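Final report, closing paragraph on structural work. Over the funding period we assembled a curated collection of sequence-structure pairs, and we close with a single example.
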Amino acid sequence: MQFFNLLKQELNVKDIRYNRSYLTESSDKEYLSIDSQNYNLKLILETQITNDLKQEGIAREIVRAIQNLRKNAELDLDQIILVKYETRDTKLSESLNTFVDYIQKETLAAEIIPEATEGGTFTINGSNINLSIEIVS
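Its predicted structure, as stored:
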């Protein structure tokens, strides 16, 4: 189990499964196969990106953008903020709504409000989002 946890960290993956019959069961999925005859080991990486993973990636980019605003505003690490955003992209909005708790936790945002804003404009996933922050405490 410790080996799987180490692999998860090093490969930056969410899950590792041990399954001898994976290739026969999942021949329709995209994967990368690495065969090592020296160790009698075959490593298969499923490379298909699901919608959930795409949304999570968008949420991480939103966090990065907000953290950039915090840095530019020279905020202290413990200052609580209010985030306002505006976007016309439904995928960005959907990701924000799905991962709002994660985004708030990572950015110390008390609230995230969909409201017209004149803050910074960021391009995420090929679409623009306007973000602004205000200090709450």
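Strands lie at 31-36, 41-46, 81-86, 109-114, 120-124, 127-135. The mean pLDDT is 84. We thank the funder for supporting this effort.
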